[in-house]
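Table 4 source record.
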Amino acid sequence: MRALLSTDNKAGLVPFATALHRLGWELVATGHTQQTLLDAGLPVTSVADLTGSPEMLGGRLKTLHPRIHGGILARRGNADDERDVATHHLPLFDMVVVNLYPFVELLQQADLSAAERIEKIDIGGVALLRAAAKNHEYVVVVSHPDQYDGVLAAIATPDGASAAYRRELALAAFRLTAAYDATIAAWLGADAAETFPDRLTLPLQKIQSLRYGENPHQQAAFYRLIGSPDGRPSLAGAEQLNGREISFNNLLDLQAAFEAASDFLAPTVVIVKHTNPCGLACHPELVEAYRRAHAGDPVAAYGGIIGCNRPVDEATAREIRPLNYDAIIAPDYDPAALAILKRKKQGQMVVLRAAGAWAPHGHQGLTSPAGRIGATPERYTPSQMDIKRVAGGLLLQTPDDLLDAQITLTPVTKRTPTLEEVTDLIFAFRVCKHVKSNCVVIAKHLAVVGSGAGQQSRVLAAEIAAKRAEDRARGAVMATDGFFPFPDGVEAGIRAGVTAVIHPGGSIRDAESIAVCDQHGVAMVTTGGVRHFRH
């Protein structure tokens, strides 16, 4: 029995190779792998001795040789293959042990040049794995050190590795090489001129299995897109510091909380229920932002998810602790704050830390009535895309990340909004990005005081938002994600006491809505058709 070993990751290599040697296997290895085994006192043949060809091109060419791939691909019992083996004196391999250059890890190193990354694109290793996986009926393919113990146990049995186990190993190898190639394609494609190429591959790696999906009868798992070089904080990269096993629905709500909180520059707290913000507020003091967010809808906040775009301090944690929440996500936690949250409900509250600067795609959040600072990127990597599933395929779109400064606010009523109203109008319209359509948001002093989400009619969304706001709607502003098709939605807000309205405009009945506002001295601005639908 003969094994070919070529590993970049040497973890567990020597004990594994030692066990193979004791089982009577002949060892063949490439340069650094061979030297590691020789240093351990193991007998090992170099690939160069076997092929009669030295490594060349600075190590780029080692194993791409007929005597290597022929010995891997040869089918036992096939007359033609056996004739070729005999004619060309091909050494047969019964096992191939390869792990690839760590290209994914190198993408996270900002100090590496493109040329240095190119050199870490594995060619020979991928070819070896694919060849062995194709011929797995006769060749055991080992693609990760985690497999060493299982492989040793399998080959030590009287019948050797079973057909089912060989197939399982082959599947793991093909999945690895597919994800590896997809990661390289995503990296190279980041600088390509096309945003949506004809062929798009999405490399995914499982983070964890979940208890179940949206309902107990559904199975679920959590995957991350691998190879994204931007280093931004994300839910997939978050660290769980406390709490029970996280659920599918928790993750959906945590993502909604993360997206909403990270969309603002000022200290911001959002409370999410069923992926919709039921409270969101900005304030220089995080604890006050939390108080105002909770006041947005204290009933709906029960059992919700909190998102904070600043490290959670002790004062904020003390405000949170007496109330019932399922989870919280933030860039970090003061030690005293974390201790308080860990004591909450016998330590069952999920606490996630997504370290880093929370700002989507490098942009700033709400800064002033003048808008936001930054520029929208011209191209996006797959990890930055918004992806939605449909039957038989996927829908991809660039993120809804227009800067406020790129939106033209046009007063259309006799009264123009005050500076304070403009600030709240910009805030409320931005919150609409994170509320399911059709939606209406009522806000005052950079805090949501009422919202209506996911309604089939906009007037119903306005009525729900007004009902939730109650007296707090007086002197507040109202925003909606799309235009008001009829004046009835505007009328609902005016009855509640709002003094200014923002919507995209463009309805054939805009004049009627404007007339209603003028009649009551309410200011209205339009966004030039810019909308924030969220289906």
